[in-house]
Amino acid sequence: MFEPFTLKDIAKALGLSTSTVSRALRDTHEISAETKKIVLEYAQKINYKPNPNALSLKERRSKSIGVIVSEVANHYFSQAINGIESIAYDKGYHVIITQTHESYEREKINIQHLASRSVDGLLVSLSAETSDTSHLQSLHKRGLQMVFFDRVAEDIETHKITANNEKGAFEATEYLIRQGYKKIAHLTSSDHLSISIERLNGYKKALEQHGLPFNPHYLKYCPHGGMFYDEVENAVKELMNLSDRPDAVFVAGDRLSVGCLVVFKNLNIQVPKDMAITGFSNSDVLDLMHPPLTAVRQPAFEMGQIATDMLIRLIESRYPVYEFEKKVLDTSLLIR
Fold first, then answer.
1. HSE-CB of 293 using CA atoms within 13 angstroms
2. pLDDT given at position 203
3. Which residues contact 13 (CB under 8 A, 6 or more apart)?
4. How far apart, in Å, do the first and last CA atoms of the chain sit?
5. Partners of 246 in beta bridges
6. 124: left (phi > 0), else alpha (psi -120 to 50), else beta?
7. Per-residue pLDDT at 4
8. Would you say residue 84 has pLDDT above 90?
9. What is the distance of C-alpha 177 from the center of its chain?
10. Which residues form the HTH lacI-type domain (predicted)?
């Protein structure tokens, strides 16, 4: 029976250690150019072929990437996942998708499960409940590569990619102001999420630039991003019951935008006759609504592609990476 040559055979023939031969064949920076040349020439001479199973175990590569999102049914995330898969599969990586349903506990369980399956890296968009990222920090310190997209963790040093949330929120709020509305409310997700903070800043800047006061009573948080109808309904009812009721609302989320329209319909509040609304949404369903909703659109597919490319470069880097990039992509206001 034919027995293929092994690393040990090469090491014995050249008087080197097995680890030195392994590193030379993988072209790592610790081995001198001269040693690499000797090892590679000998490997070619004996027609050495690495065992793919042994190589996978040695390098601890699973050629799989874990993805953590709040909900696949969310139009933004489904488009981002399409972008992730388009790059990952092209580069030979499998994609394992998990949903947190905006739960911190579910996020922790999903991440531990992915880590136990030895994924090579994680693409993470934090849940609405997540303010403590220690579960991610501990894995990152142990060498698990990760890239954040959309909802990012400021306290973990790695690549991050977001949309220009502040600019998008500014434009959506300004659009309402230019339509003549002066009492504009803001409906958003949990207060600690990066996207909530950035969109609130954009909303406030638009008010300030047009000489309108910020009214704290007009700001309503939905801790689960509108995943539960009750929290959207309660927030909208609180706004509608104010003595100085708003005449418009800027909604800072995909699911929140649709949820808000449903609540208005159930309360017999006509849009835009009784209440104007702009939102953040990547849903094409908004075109079918009457009247259609003007909304900020994020380049979700492109964000997924860039995040995946960043992660694979981290995974495949031969050297430790110490410089990280925060990439911000432009949004567009679709006036319907």
1. 31
2. 96
3. 42
4. 72
5. none
6. beta
7. 66
8. yes
9. 31
10. 5-59
How far, CA to CA in Å, does 306 sit from each of 88, 201, 266, 292, 299?
Answer: 11, 25, 40, 31, 11
pLDDT for the residue numbered 1: 35
Domains and CATH numbers, the chain: 7-59 (1.10.260.40), 64-163+300-330 (3.40.50.2300), 165-297 (3.40.50.2300)
| Cα–Cα dist 328/330, whole Å | 7
Q: Closest Cα partner for 224 from 204, 249, 253? A: 253
Q: In which region does residue 15 sit, left (phi positive, over 0), alpha (psi from -120 to 50) or beta (all else)?
A: left
What distance in Å separates the CA atoms of residue 236 and residue 241, rounded to the nearest whole number?
Answer: 9
Q: Which token pair is 131?
A: 């303010």
d(CA 240, CA 145): 46
Q: By the 8 A CB rule, do 150 and 195 touch?
A: yes
Residues composing the chain: 336
Phi and psi for 219 in degrees, rounded to 5?
Answer: -100, 120
Q: For residues 177 and 180, give the distance between their C-alpha atoms in angstroms, rounded to a whole number.
A: 5
Write the CB contacts of 327 (distance below 8 Å, at least 6 apart in sequence): 159, 160, 161, 162, 306, 310
Three-state DSSP at 306 gives: helix
Helix-then-strand count for the chain, H and E: 12, 12
pLDDT in tens, 74-83: 889 999 999 9
Contact between 184 and 239 (Cβ < 8 Å): no
d(CA 33, CA 48): 19
Question: How high is the mean pLDDT of the chain?
Answer: 88
Alpha carbon distance 284, 102 (integer Å): 23
Give the strand pairing for 184-188 and 219-221: parallel
